[in-house]
Amino acid sequence: MRISFLPTHNYFLSVLQGCHHRQVDIVRLVMESALTARDRVGVQDFVLLENYNSEAAFIENLRRRFRENLVYTYIGSVLVSVNPYKELEIYSKQQMERYRGVSFYEISPHIYALSDNTYRAMRTERKDQCILISGESGAGKTEASKKILLYYAVTCPANDHMAALGDRLLQSNPVLEAFGNAKTLRNDNSSRFGKYMDVQFDFRGAPVGGHILNYLLEKSRVVHQNHGERNFHIFYQLLEGGDDDLLHRLDLDRNPQNYKYLVKGNCPRVSSISDKNNWKTVMKALSVIGFSDEEVQKLLNIIASVLHLGNTHFGEGEEGETHITTETQIRNLEKLLGVDGSALREALTHKKLTAKGEEMISPLNFEQAMSARDALAKAMYGRTFTWLVEKINQSLALKVNSKGSSVIGLLDIYGFEVLQHNSFEQFCINYCNEKLQQLFIELTLRSEQEEYETEGIAWETVKYFDNKIICDLIEEKHKGIISILDEECLRPGETCDISFLEKLEGTLGGHPHFVTHKLANGKTRRVMSREEFRLLHYAGEVNYNVNGFMDKNNDLLNRNLKEVMCQSDNQILNHCFRREEVIDQKRPEMAATQFKNSLMKLMEILMSKEPSYVRCIKPNDAKQPGRFDEVLVRHQVKYLGLMENLRVRRAGFAYRRRFEAFLQRYKPLCPDTWPNWHGKLADGVSTLVNHLGYKAEEYKLGRSKIFIRFPKTLFTTEDALELMLSLSKPCLNGSHWLSFLIVIGYLCVVIVIQSGWRGMKGRRRAKKRREAAELIRRFIKGFIYRHEEYCPENAYFLDHVRYSFLMKLSKNLPKNVLDRNWPTPPPSLVEASEHLQRLHLQNMVMKYCRRIQPEWKKQPSEIFKDQKDSYPQGVGSCFGLQTWCVSYGVSVVKYDRRGFKPRPRQLLLTNTYAVLVDRTKIKQRIDYNALRGISVSSLSDGMFVLHMPNEDNKQKGDAVLHCNHVIEVVTKLAMMASKIDHVNINPGRVSSTLTVFCLSCSTYHLILSLFSPVWRAVLSLLWLGARRESLISSGAQS
């Protein structure tokens, strides 16, 4: 079968040549994995470095990629990240989707690729995973952990509950940063604690819970900072962002220079940090996580108390006794912490000792009192931070037991530190990194060996530096540095940091990785102090100054200070300082031993999971974008153990890929495998590599993967593929010419399909636009002719208006018969609207009448029939009692007793009393028990009088009211007040009516004020006569 594409050959050749001019952009943006770009951007996997033993080649590859804003590079499955110190457009939601579900090596290196690969491994293998992030301060560890959490929050399946959990996971970061991060010389947002976070996923892969472990908070920063550094962020955020009312309650002012614990670093503000905005972020995050307002206030009370404690000063008496000279601070502490001020004052200047069961109080000298104050500040802050983490864990905890759940752990921990002055904190941090390096090498070797055994390839022994000897030097029982430090702290008698150093020299003097000034040679002595010892770590030599080792390891708080804190009214402190701690006579573990034990538990957690690694590097100390400091980067490459990792990874085969991936990419290079291979994958790969001329020592075939030993072999293959696809050589031999024709044929088919699909999409878009334009035209034309008779020009518009009105009416119908609101209809629906309104009202009246009980209808007849002229009209509309708290309400007019001025009121009836209300204000309350009677006339007026006792000061006397529904009102009031027998209706003339109305002098004077002086005299005579007849008739009856 002959295939000829001669008419289209020149066309496709020109298209491909035109695309060649954009090759650089395509390589960089679309498929950075194309290895022809390696001369400019380096290799995306250090395993492919030809000279993998050269540190210079390693760093040059980093530099090339950094220059092109390619900040991520692999070492096998390890991700190396260089902090760009600027925003890059590679973290959008579109980028997340680009890496979602894509094989790890199919696309350029990225933190999202590692996150997705870990997530898919957890889902498919049903095995817990962990991601270990390490690096120097300022290398971007915290940002990397944020990116990973954000990726899971956006891409994982979620419902409302899971979305809320994702918010809490993300919002925990600003809270922990505020309380656990600080500005240092190397980083403006340096994490001063280690953090391990577990994110729990259910069987569907949705996040359902979380848990955080914290390690070694740098508590010494609370009381001391180096020059150019700051205390923890929360102190400055509170002073800068807290409102005036809050600061007044905490007895604080906004100037950080007024607080001793904030001035030592002489750096109150940082240009790259907005404490005010961060304060708002932290307050919002606390609310999202679930902190109550009371808990936030108690937390801020403790933060403010630390500042007040730092401003507590001491004086020294003639006999050396110490006393407090700043009583204001003690009063502030007493108020904020809820402790006894005198007890706190005593505990800061004295210590309680127990000897042979007896307690003794010993005064502290000036230095001891200062140390006790600082120890209390560190203990309060450190324990509060632990409580904060526990509270976040409660918010993130798995609410229901989820079967089949898996975990991804995230370890964000300090990298190897070498400062000018290295102390106890650097010793613990570097010990932690030694353990992590030991774990890293062990797990890397184990995974390599497992992969080789799975693929059926012989394992070759790998030479590497085993740092177990250094770990044993630090942690070995009875002989390690930590054990010696603990023994020296517990030894009775005079002990100090120098005696600890001497003990180290006597015990570890012959160790190859331990050196002191005394044990060193003459050259080393010149660069070492007599108070230092040197450890030869896997990453290099570090000198540690022993000053402060004993105090920081003891980290003891006087017993009487603990007793004062136990009695605090602050619930957080009450939780942090347990009563059992004071009662228990057992000495707590030393700080180094606590850290060692927690580190052992962490190693157990990490060993139980499948690890992934992120190694973070900062390119310069000035935090400047685009600047690459080779000396600094070389220092970090060494301390992160990257070259050691590369050597382990390259000890066998540099490149390995699954058969299907390798065959899919390189099958155009062999006529037997192009366009499709229909046999076994292993046979197809074997056919392909034999055609390419691979030598036996260059590769091996496993059970599911091909292993290529030398990067040069892979580069040659990649270059051949790029050469053929770019059509850079017009003259090809016979076999390749056939492949070329087939490629052109496929391109032709693809172009036809693409053009057809694009044409169909364009026609659909054009149709939608035409329909939209026609709809707008009809609407505008209908609006112009809206006042005309119904016709084709306005038919659509009028139909739409009618439909909109009916839909609006259906959602806004009146709910009861008293509601007269009704939407205004359009002109074309006025008549229909009136019919609908009338029908709806009739329907509501029918429903209302059905709810009225028969006995309620009898009561008005018994009270008013044949006695009230307006009775027939008043009972025309039925009424019933409601079951609300206010059982009945009606508008009335109340007439003042003086001046008889009408006042519009609302009369509301409840179960026990009636009230007269003016808008929202109660003007008069009428208790049913105090109501003597109700009087009405027999005429058709709406007047009625409620008779109240004059001797009761709480009542305002009789109430003269007028209502259009007098029969309904009096009936309901008489029924609810049980005063049916006290309703007085007298027939007769005006005088008789007055007799009824004027049963009390106050009511008489009220009505008399309505008339002119002449009529007042006439009415007075009538009233006196009526009273006289009433008295005579009552006497005759008696």
CATH domain fold name of the domain at 467-600: Methane Monooxygenase Hydroxylase, Chain G, domain 1
The mean pLDDT is: 80
N/C terminus separation = 137 Å
Structural class: alpha+beta
Widest β-sheet, arrangement of strands:
23-22-21-20-26-25-24-27
How does CATH name the architecture of the domain at 467-600?
A: Up-down Bundle
- Quickly count the helices: 40
Q: Helical percent range?
A: 40-55%
CATH class of the domain at 467-600: Mainly Alpha
Biggest sheet layout: 8 strands, mixed
Shape: flat
Q: Please state roughly what percent of the residues sit in beta strands, choosing from under 5%, 5-15%, 15-25%, 25-35%, 35-45% or over 45%.
A: 5-15%
Low-pLDDT windows of residues: 1-36, 727-733, 877-884, 988-1003, 1030-1038
Rounded to an integer in angstroms, the radius of gyration calculated over CA atoms is 45 Å
| Strand elements, count | 27
Quick summary of this structure?
By secondary structure, this protein is α+β, with helices and mostly antiparallel strands.
Structural write-up:
By secondary structure, the protein is of the alpha+beta class. Among the domains are: about 130 residues, Methane Monooxygenase Hydroxylase, Chain G, domain 1, CATH 1.20.58.530; about 70 residues, Alpha-Beta Plaits (2-Layer Sandwich); about 100 residues, Pleckstrin-homology domain (PH domain)/Phosphotyrosine-binding domain (PTB) (PH-domain like), CATH 2.30.29.30. It is about 50% helix and about 15% strand. The protein contains 40 helices and 27 strands. An eight-stranded mixed β-sheet has the order 23-22-21-20-26-25-24-27. Helix 8 runs antiparallel to helix 16, helix 32 crosses helix 33 and helix 38 packs across helix 40. The radius of gyration is 45 Å and the shape is flat.
